[in-house]
Amino acid sequence: MSFKKFCPKCGKETEYLIDNLCKDCYLQGKSIFDIEKSNISVCKFCNKTKIGNHWFEVNDELIGNQIANMIKPNKDLKQPKILVTLEKFLENNYSAVVAVEGFLSDILVKDIKEIKFQVKETTCDSCMKINASYREAVVQLRANDKNDREEIFKMALDILKKDKSNDSLSDTSKIIKLKTGYDLWVGSKKSAIKISSFIAKLYNCQIKRSKKLIGQDDNGEQKYRYTFCMKIDEKLKK
Ligand SMILES: [Zn+2]
Ligand SMILES: [Zn+2]
């Protein structure tokens, strides 16, 4: 035989008391979690968002994770579980339903809140550079034949586009059309090398490399701008 228990605050009969209160009274005024809102911004040029010190192509999962990071569960909540359900209702406007559950004094508790927020548009460092005619390398594509010229130009742009998700500097900051070909100002030296070796191999041509000292970087190391020049010779084409 068990003794009946009554909550001294509300008078309700209860199976057990926590801190000498029924469950409802105990939970009154206690928040299971708080949301510390912080900005989520996405680059309007490359659609990437900054997490820590890195930029990642944005998707709903990433945004959901960023929201989860804003959730501050009650410090007494044991085994907290956070679930974020995201809904985009307008361009850059989201609503998120946040559910948190866990144990407070061994009682399973749960709370749900909805937040609305807007993803802010920004310009990431790489896109800022690309917009300011930044280039680590210049790729010079030359061919006497017009079709060859257009073909290698298109190939170069395709390679840049493909690498852009990993490297935001894989882009042109300027394209100069010449009688004999194209000059591409390329933000990433790595991408410029990739383009050059791909085209050189495909068309069996030499890469003329040169570099020019343009200054020093923050660590005092010499900074160069590289030029990769390729001239397609129809006779050497495979
Ligand atoms: Zn009570
Ligand atoms: Zn960007």
Describe this structure in words.
The model has no long low-confidence stretch (mean pLDDT 90). The chain has helices at 23-27, 60-70, 125-131, 146-163, 189-203, and strands at 5-6, 13-14, 33-35, 41-43, 48-51, 54-57, 71-73, 78-90, 93-104, 107-118, 120-122, 137-143, 172-178, 181-186, 207-216, 222-232. The chain is of the alpha+beta class and 238 residues long. The strands form six sheets. The chain has a five-stranded mixed sheet with strand order 13-14-12-16-15. A hairpin with a 5-residue loop joins strand 15 (207-216) and strand 16. It starts with a strand and ends in a 6-residue tail after the last strand. 24% of the residues lie in helices and 43% in strands. The protein folds into two domains: 13-122, no CATH class; 125-236. It binds zinc ion (ZN) (2 copies). One zinc ion binds at residues 43, 45-46, 48, 124, 126-127, 168.
Please describe the structure with a list of short key phrases separated by commas or semicolons.
2 domains, alpha+beta, 238 residues, three-stranded antiparallel beta sheet, 24% helix, binds zinc ion, 5 helices, five-stranded mixed beta sheet
Q: What does this entry show, briefly?
A:
The protein is α+β, with helices and mostly antiparallel strands and 238 residues long. The chain contains 5 helices and 16 strands. One zinc ion binds at residues 43, 45-46, 48, 124, 126-127, 168.
